[in-house]
Design a protein that fits this description.
- The chain is of the alpha/beta class.
- The chain has 3 domains: 3-107 and 295-314, NAD(P)-binding Rossmann-like Domain (Rossmann fold); 109-286, NAD(P)-binding Rossmann-like Domain (Rossmann fold, 3-Layer(aba) Sandwich), CATH 3.40.50.720; 331-518, D-3-phosphoglycerate dehydrogenase, domain 3 (60s Ribosomal Protein L30, Chain: A), CATH 3.30.1330.90.
- It is 33% helix and 20% strand.
- It has a 7-stranded parallel β-sheet. It has a 6-stranded mixed β-sheet with strand order 14-13-15-16-17-18. Strands 2-1-3-4-5 form a 5-stranded parallel β-sheet.
- Helix 11 links the parallel strand 10 (235-239) and strand 11.
- Helix 5 crosses helix 7 (161-171) and helix 14 crosses helix 15.
- The longest helix has 22 residues, at 331-352.
- The radius of gyration is 29 Å and the shape is elongated.
- The chain starts with 11 loop residues before the first strand and ends with a strand.
- Its EC number is 1.1.1.95.
- Residues 118-291 form the D-isomer specific 2-hydroxyacid dehydrogenase NAD-binding domain.
């Protein structure tokens, strides 16, 4: 089965961080050799991966999977994070090398949400200070005056699984929940009880802010001096998501001035954190990255990542593919991806052969699909990019294919095709088409997913679908040449290949042009 159907060879997997024993058991039951070797130094990790020939690696947060590791471990195909955050994995380097990165996005949802709520509740009632006072032998009931959450406004930044769970729990305390997430519409947010707002309108409304977004270039230092100044005076900041989302020096200054009423921090830009002033501030409640540290969460993420690996090995659909947007999640998607890949290979080969006019510095392929396939835009683009790369001798999987194609001067655009007019009662055709909008008009190929088969070439429908498998030959000829050419091709037809003749009219026709493509 091809990689477009999401199958990876996984014979040996290294687990380099301490994970629940069920992870090893699930892998072993599936016939995968799973080796648990915890606490390896960077050089020892590289040596183990290279000498052991591991195709898979399972980590938590301790192991750093950097570019050096990925470049040295040439057999590595998959890295799995038994948890949500993947800051310890170099995603760019992984994609460049075609290494799939998986995480376990659902396993620690409840634990992380409960921990964020715990930080907010403990902070507003100053539980950490009262506890320390009691341990010191004091009984001071008047010193630790707290704040009610009932009637206050909680801003939830990031409305994924964890953010939604936090919002749901804090509404039980009578809080108004507002939120922002660029991937969630206002209508969707309303369905789970959150009033959606743009960030610049959200900050001034917030009595408390809780962060639930990944650490990306555009989210780094998301909460900074400007944002803190725009919040209500005395705002509470909760970060149980990723270190680096809060500019810690700005937070400390806001705590000192009273603009920030308190901060509950489970994660830090550098762990362990170095700034004692922040850790020891009386209005800061800290924990050492415990969001997912529950018995239940550790078991769930271990099972989830192990099951992901097993599904990959069996060629089944996966979820939690961090850099694998091109991977098919089901057989239907895989069929359309295979068509996109082979159409792109055919289209790019035609350009290289001069069928679309003089070659330029860059190749732009336009992938046109009906509205029914619009949801598959990214998987289809990845497949088309891999197909185009094949014409340049680069055998590439779907992971990182678009980025690799861009470096090779190949761009793949996606657009929804206009609906075709069909006879009453007939089903609308579901086809893909690829053309080269920057080249000579007329060069295009189209097909259907079952097969996969070519049904259209250069704007003309073929008399019968041509399966895109083995070797396909295209020969363009004038009307006078067609009969003898057809007889020649019929006589030369073999069991391991297919032939087709396309008749072209107008400026796109190139007498005698021929193209042979062997599909892998």
């Amino acid at each position: 089965m091809s990689e477009s159907a999401v199958q990876f060879p996984l014979r040996r997997v290294l687990l380099s961080d301490d994970v629940d024993p069920r992870c090893v058991a699930i892998l072993a039951d599936a016939g995968i050799d799973a080796q648990l070797k915890v606490g390896l130094a960077p050089d020892a990790l590289i040596a183990e991966l290279t000498s052991g020939g591991y195709e898979g690696l399972v980590v938590r947060s301790a192991t750093k999977v950097n570019r050096q590791v990925l470049e040295a471990a040439t057999a590595l195909r998959v890295v799995g994070r038994a948890g949500t955050g993947v800051d310890n994995i170099d995603l760019n380097a992984a994609s460049e090398r075609g290494v799939l990165v998986l995480n376990a996005p659902g396993g620690n949802t409840v634990s992380a949400a409960e921990h964020a709520c715990t930080l907010l509740l403990g902070l507003t009632r100053r539980v950490h200070l009262a506890d320390a006072s009691m341990r010191a032998g004091r009984w001071d009931r008047k010193k630790f005056l707290g704040t009610e959450l009932h009637g206050k406004t909680l801003a939830v930044v990031g409305l994924g699984r964890i953010g939604r769970e936090v919002a749901n729990r804090m509404r039980a305390f009578g809080m108004r929940t507002i939120g922002y997430d660029p991937m969630v519409t206002p209508e969707q947010a309303k369905e789970f009880g959150v009033e959606w707002m743009e960030l610049d309108k959200l900050w001034p409304e917030a009595d408390a802010v809780t962060l639930h977004v990944p650490l990306l270039p555009h989210t780094e230092n998301l909460v900074n001096a400007r944002v803190l100044a725009s919040c209500r005076r005395g705002v509470f900041i909760i970060n149980a998501a990723r270190g680096g989302l809060v500019q810690e020096a700005d937070l400390l200054a806001a705590l000192e001035s009273g603009q920030c009423g308190g901060a509950g921090l489970d994660v830090f830009a550098v762990e362990p954190p170095q700034d004692a002033r922040l850790l020891q501030h009386e209005r800061v409640l800290t924990t050492p990255h415990l969001g997912a540290s529950t018995i239940e969460a550790q078991s769930r993420v271990a099972v989830e990542i192990a099951e992901q690996f097993v599904r990959l090995a069996r060629g089944e659909g996966v979820h939690g593919a961090v850099n694998g947007e091109g991977l098919a999640a089901n057989p239907e998607t895989a069929a359309w991806q295979l068509l996109a890949r082979r159409l792109a290979q055919l289209a790019a080969a035609g350009v290289a052969a001069g069928l679309a006019g003089p070659n330029g510095d860059r190749l732009r392929l336009r992938l046109r699909a009906p509205a029914a396939l619009a949801r598959l835009a990214r998987p289809l683009q990845a497949a088309a990019a891999a197909g185009a790369l094949a014409t340049r001798g680069e055998s590439r999987g779907l992971v990182g294919a678009v980025a690799a194609a861009n470096k090779q001067g190949i761009d793949v655009d996606f657009e929804v095709a206009e609906a075709e007019v069909v006879k009453k009662g007939a089903a609308a055709p579901t086809t893909l088409e690829i053309d080269c909008p920057d080249r000579r008009p007329g060069w295009s190929v189209g097909g259907v997913g079952s097969g996969p088969a070519l049904t259209r070439c250069c704007g003309r429908e073929l008399s019968q679908p041509l399966v895109l498998d083995g070797t396909v030959a295209l020969l363009q000829a004038g009307a006078a040449q067609l009969p003898p050419v057809q007889r020649l091709l019929a006589a030369a037809r073999s069991a391991d290949g297919s032939c087709v003749v396309c008749r072209l009219d107008g400026p796109a026709a190139v007498e005698g042009s021929q193209l042979c493509v062997t599909f892998s």
